[in-house]
Description:
The structure holds two protein chains of two kinds. By secondary structure, chain A is mostly helical.
Amino acid sequence: MSETIHTLQEFMTQTKGVIYLLALGFLVSFTWFWTFLHKKDKD
Amino acid sequence: MAEEEKQVTRHDVEESRSLFTPFNMIAGIFLIVGVILAFKRFTGGLGAVTNLDHNNPWGFWIGFDLLTGVALAAGGYVTAACVEIFGMKKYHAALRPAILTGFLGYSLVVFALLFDVGRPWRLPYPFIVNQGVTSVMFEVGACVALYLTVLFLEFSPAALEWLGMKKVRKLAIRLTMVLTFLGVILSTLHQSSLGAMYLIAPSKLHPLWYSPYLPVFFFVSSIAAGLSMVVFESTLSYKNFRNKMDEEHKKSRNAITIGFGRAASLVLAGYFAIKIFGVALGNHWNLLFTNMGLWFQVEMLGFVLLPCFLYAIGVREKNVKLIRFTAFWTVLGIVLNRFNVSLVAFNWQLPMEARYFPSWMEIGITLFIVTVGLVVFRFIVTRMPIFYEHPEYSTEH
């Protein structure tokens, strides 16, 4: 009978969790990208 | 053979002195049409030349002349920061052209605002009548006015060298570091405040483009725009004003292209990441495969991620042609982004008949303004020491 209404607050943990994972992924891939970009300088 | 060369040279000189060159003819047509349209705008009001209405009070002039113009003028503060603050003197040859492009870019923004603001004579009001300091618009106005002044002062040594005013030039040179710091501070404020203007319209801007971090997006993308614009402008200048460049300028071209390409690649990588964080923060993943979402993906993948990798490959392979093409592509991407925020994704929920599309006269006035910029740029670089060191001051750097 009664419909559950969700607020954005209820998804905060999930949203924040996704952002933390993305940030971690970015830090790792950016380090790789940095070395990719500078590799030939060292050769 | 030598006689043939002499004839070619004489022919070139005669052609360069002729008023009826292709550039002059096309520029002349744009200027004449522009003056007629300007007359219509200032006698008949905005309604006489634009398709603007109460739903769409900001149109093509804000999207292109202001938002894109300011982003593409970012080369001035980016290059000044590299050379003067971070001490990367190997990019010194790029400084004056970048400052000139920035100065003309900002001058044209103000010129375009005279057309776009309903009562242009009130432009100085925020400074002398009513400040309205709680409005983002005040920050936008204040930063444009102050940064335009800073750019004028940064550009002034070239003009003073041309005019032979040694003492005033010496004073202007002493101010370089202060002006560079002011330029970076004002640009940071101003580039971001243009994004902040759209924070007032969360219900009008599509969720994929709207974000509380819009000011950050605008600022970071302006750095990529500035770096790319320096490379793009140097490519065009080399084609058209090679005879005005000294050896140092020509020699450092490739180093500037590779250095700026590398920086642009890193900035675009960071920009792509924060844009994805923006989608994640709003939890808008479900919108990515709607029509607007697919357009968002075209912008993100085709005009941010693709140039990021093309720059990286160009830098690794020392392929300056690829970097120059990518600079052009990135400039296109910045234009697309500013159009998306101000026109395509703005009022996206309105029915098609209520959507805005610019009239040919709005586009005509924009072409007029761009042409004025190109003519002034040509006037300056063919007379003042922009692409070469003035012989009297060549030992200073």
